[in-house]
Design a protein that fits this description.
The chain is built from six helices and eleven strands. With 230 residues, the chain is α+β, with helices and mostly antiparallel strands.
């Protein structure tokens, strides 16, 4: 009998909390949300254009011989016209993926490119080494969040986990990253040196670097399992 009373009390407490949350406009936003962007849309974004100058520097100040504006075309032969802004096609549909995981006031935000080895330049395949399966560009940011209905504020990330090997070989040294960063974590931001500099890739939906790092508000759609930034 005591067990039944205890279960009833728990149920009533849960119901009361649910009622209070509803009355206050509260909403459970925990879950996984994704957004997939085709290559034409990705390279049409102004943030992406701004982050692809003709010339880039490596962390040591020397010229990056493989700037992003060249790298993306090397990693997928289908997107050359998208990068140049001259394509009239729809682009690669599953080119860029962003996943947002929310649970218990903590978030994980992962930005990554879908690399298909069938479309990687043969020259890049010839440079691969060190046991890497394929070129990889993926960052996962972690931190705390607060929510008000479907609006979720992602606080400045406290950690970034990097899976970065843009050419999957020695040529990684000649990109803006100046090397390979696989299975690397960092908790302190750095405006000059990687991996701390990866924390500057948090803001905006895209895989771009920002001069500063700030909290970011997203809107989640619980039913659709998607989200948007802004």
């Amino acid at each position: 009998m005591k067990k039944v009373r205890k279960l009833l009390a728990i149920a009533l407490t849960a119901a009361t909390l649910g009622t209070l949350l509803t009355a206050c406009g509260g909403k459970d936003v925990s879950g996984t949300y994704t957004q997939t962007i085709d290559s034409k849309t990705y390279f049409s974004a102004q943030e992406v254009k701004n982050d692809m100058p003709e010339a880039e520097k490596r962390p040591d100040g020397s010229e990056a011989m493989v700037p992003f504006i060249r790298l993306f075309g090397m990693l997928d032969t289908r997107v050359g016209e998208d990068v140049a802004g001259t394509s009239s096609a729809a682009g690669v549909s599953d080119y860029y993926n962003v996943k947002l995981e929310l649970s218990g006031g903590k978030y994980k935000l992962t930005k990554s490119f879908n690399v298909d080895m069938d479309y990687v330049f043969d020259e890049v395949k010839g440079m691969m080494g060190g046991g890497a399966d394929k070129p990889t560009l993926s960052l996962t940011f972690s931190g705390a969040y607060t929510a008000k209905d479907s609006a979720v504020t992602l606080e400045v990330p406290t950690q970034v986990d990097a899976q970065i090997s843009p050419v999957a070989g020695m040529a990684d040294n000649y990109t803006r990253f100046g090397g390979t960063y696989m299975d690397v974590s960092e908790t302190t931001a750095d405006s000059e040196a990687f991996p701390g500099r990866f924390l500057h890739y948090f803001n905006t939906l895209y895989f771009v670097e920002s001069s500063s790092i700030s909290s970011m508000t997203v809107t989640v759609d619980k039913n659709a399992g998607t989200f948007s930034i802004g």
